[in-house]
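Bit of a strange request maybe. I'm writing a small parser for structure token strings and I need a real example to test against, not something I typed by hand. Could someone generate the tokens for this chain?
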Amino acid sequence: MSDEANPYESLKEQIDDAAAYIDADDGVLTRLKNPERVLETNLTFERDDGSLETVRAYRSQFNGDRGPYKGGIRYHPGVTRDEVKALSGWMAYKCAVVDVPYGGGKGGVAIDPADYSADELERLTRSFATELRPLIGEDRDVPAPDVNTGQREMNWIKDTYETLENTTAPGVITGKALDSGGSEGRVEATGRSTMLAARETFEWLDRDVRNATVAVQGYGNAGSVAAALLEDLGADVVAVSDSSGGIHDPDGLDARGVKAHKRETGSVSGYGDAEAITNEELLTLDVDLLVPAALENAVDADLAADLEADVVVEAANGPLTPGADDVLTERGTWVVPDVFANAGGVTVSYFEWVQNRQRFHWTEERVNEELERTITEAFDGIVEAYEGEDLPNLRTAAYVVAIRRVVNAYDQGGNWP
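Reply from user aminoacidic:
Good idea to test on real output. This should exercise your parser:
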């Protein structure tokens, strides 16, 4: 696996690949490859022993032509300026490809949250929320959870913003707990859209997802939910992994049982009689469906040459480098891109925002029905572009659909001043 590819350069290369099929001014396309603004700040907070610590944090607002900026906040030691720029760009085009009226945003703090207590994380999060206060708002920029953040951190940000603004504004952030204005179905949304993307792809390819063998790299929220829902469709989840390593059982694992084991032990390793394997071994298993659900750049060109999966559905953001994409396209491996496959999170975040603005609560059934409609319609649009315009792969098709929507919104609004 490679960690050398710059994710922001990967994003720009993906946009360039799609731009060849789009009739748009070069100046507009250049604009659509760069964030509108990036906040880079140092957060100083108090540790439990009374000492002070300063850490680096970022928020990138990529494009607001279609609506408020939207995107998660992650806590990870690998967070960099270029990473959040890339992730905010992927968010802009993710929202466009599923036709959700948002722009793209992303934030991050360069820490390992495992090194801090809950009280320290609260002080850090509230410090970040204070820095974000001038930038965010229900109609400006709406953050959400991402890697190593969840309902708890979103609740803290909401409370900090509302306290400082002396107002009630539940729509300032999504991914909240239900009692704080969150939405039914939000926790499972990214994994659910990954499942729906796989189901629609197999149906399009005239293949049956029932009894399909599945390997999932990254068994966090998205990966574990996708595995369980694919298992519900009749697929056989034969391998999963997390940061500690992987497990493999050719006869099939119990996806929910593995998740329970990880909750108890902190790792998927040691589950039942499954064989221990490395992450790289998992990625190169001979399976029908591979779901990369960890971090970006999990597969580079060299590793892609060893992949044996027939279909790859990206639950993570940017798990394949552009070089890996080229290898898999040449080999005829179907890659369902992240900007579509994992768009369930932002889609249900949009539903949460709508509920917050209306002060009206949807049932989980309605949320899941609306999500399924959104994902299936988006897939149909991607396939129509792919088949109708002789595009090289589904990723290019998704970007063609998305960039055209952003360009249209920009053209309709005009350039000012």
